[in-house]
């Protein structure tokens, strides 16, 4: 039963990617071998490709969902971990099924590549959550392993073929000329001038008093409104954990430090890292948070450093944008989980691995504030989680500023601060055109555990400035690169990593497309 459901998930992946040939070709031994020879695990690939798709049914997927729900009924930490796995399984199937059926628009190769990358991330997150909370799952892990191998095979054989389109650059902080007029006006609007579909206010002057209630109402109205749905959140401190699962939603606040959303979930407090976020922008309950925009809001987790992993924002929605927002926490502040994300003119505060995940994420013109950690801790700004060399993911810090927060500055000499460490084997992070203050350790980067990932990671530095940017004493790992060729650096820009010219202009957010 469980095996059949796993086959459904992965065969959906293959189908949506256009990887299956005509049935007669699939069963041709020579073609199957040639096709699977490019896969990391050719035996697994060959076995599953030769299986009849008629064996796969929606009923089998429902059986797997019921099995996961039975585990959730255990409650406590085990229930929390299984709940995450169920969400991640459903999220993967839903995302990839968007490319199926005659009524769907033609899906671009970049989209398919992104969704496959996210599918593999979801499987890993499920596994990591079970391990994090020591949930007995030995019977389930082989299924995850098989599924991961199949997605990895699909990734290896999926090549980006979309024709490059001539894109205009959003230069120097100006709004792109061909962006949505309505969205540009929303982003430029002064405090209190936002034309909103709903208003949230603590003092009773709005339509509703909580962000959660407003999002629930937006979900009910969404089918009756085209274009972006705007929720204006007035100044105030909103103590709530929020899930955003409405497409093309905008949350507009009164500015950093004025509109504040705060929570205190943490791993030490009984949550999984995945589910500890104060705000969670995601696929949820058969809807999607794709196309989300946040402007002028502080997202905060107050659990504190002693509670360890405690996320302020987790985002696994596609084409998400955060503009002039702040993310405040200590360990694991900003969880850019998966898919395509863009952060512009934001503040990020934290200590350990505080920008992490496996999205294709670009932070541009942002302030990165390193806080004071606990005694005997070291600060690590990034912990990128790429698990497969074919994933089109990575974290890029471009035209930003890395400095010590006020609580760290007086004791900066007691704590070392690093640009990042490799959370997963193919971790990929690039700092470019960024100011690094004197808090950055001369080595620049920190090992995760011994020699793990040092030859397979990709850590790049390009034209950074400031006393912490000197690369003469950096680590000598095979995977570390001091980039000097602009064409290499272009791969990690908004254009190269996000294909941003095809979707960012419509959001109205200012951005630099290239270097």
TrEMBL record:
GO terms for biological process: cell wall modification; pectin catabolic process. Keywords: Aspartyl esterase, Hydrolase, Signal. PROSITE patterns: PECTINESTERASE_2. It catalyses: [(1->4)-alpha-D-galacturonosyl methyl ester](n) + n H2O = [(1->4)-alpha-D-galacturonosyl](n) + n methanol + n H(+). It comes from the Eukaryota. Residues 1-28 form the signal peptide. The active site is at residue 353. Pfam families: Pectinesterase, PMEI. Pathway: Glycan metabolism; pectin degradation; 2-dehydro-3-deoxy-D-gluconate from pectin: step 1/5. Gene3D superfamilies: Invertase/pectin methylesterase inhibitor family protein (1.20.140.40), Single-stranded right-handed beta-helix, Pectin lyase-like (2.160.20.10). It is an enzyme of class 3 (hydrolase). PANTHER family: PECTINESTERASE. In the C-terminal section; belongs to the pectinesterase family. This is Pectinesterase.
